[in-house]
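Lecture 7 notes: from sequence to structure.

We start with a single chain of 234 residues. Read the sequence below before looking at the structure.
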Amino acid sequence: MIARTDRTDAVRPVIRGGARVSDQVYAALEVAIRDLTVLPGQPLREHDLAEQLDVSRTPLREAIARLVDAGLLTVVSQVGTRVARISMRAVRDAQFARQALEVSAFELVARDPDRDVLTLRSLLDRQTAARQADDFDAFFHADDALHAEIFRMAGYPGVWDDVVRRKVHLDRLRRLSAPDADTIDELIGEHGAIVDAAEAGEVVAGADHIRIHASRILDLQPRLQAAHPGYFTD
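Now the structure, written as tokens:
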């Protein structure tokens, strides 16, 4: 099962290198928010975060300000900093953009006479292995890698990077759907249908599979919100 915690000490410390410290802090906190290491509505204490991340308050505050602007943290005077709740408006926007862009990318791939789906097949195998090991972190990484590969094959890898940046709330909702093994099995089946269609050059059928797959999370949302009402807004 995905390990969930309400402890800020689960946030990984930054590793100093070429990037600015505030950028590294931003990335570390964004990952923790995206994968539910820190939960929607959870309070975050600057002192604890600075200690855990092994950074000074200045880059931490810079990163927090950027995360507030991105809608991932909230800061209330005399209350403090909290992880933003999952915005269903942001989920719907990200789902719409992802679906439209991925359908277009898939159509380019399916029409390419030189397409090679070997990497897609390998990523499907990784997903199956992760499912069998109950390693849902590995499953989500392979899931995103498969969709990234479709954009790469289409010749637009940077577009997937744009999609990733705007789908944090969507990914949080996806994480809530685990560890539902039946859901994971259905997702793997849908991925297989997409890869089969790409290999066969079935443009229309594959685009339909993408639409069904991309909209699945919206079908799951009412059940997830009923189970975790305090995690959601709008």
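The radius of gyration is 19 Å. Keep this in mind for problem set 3.
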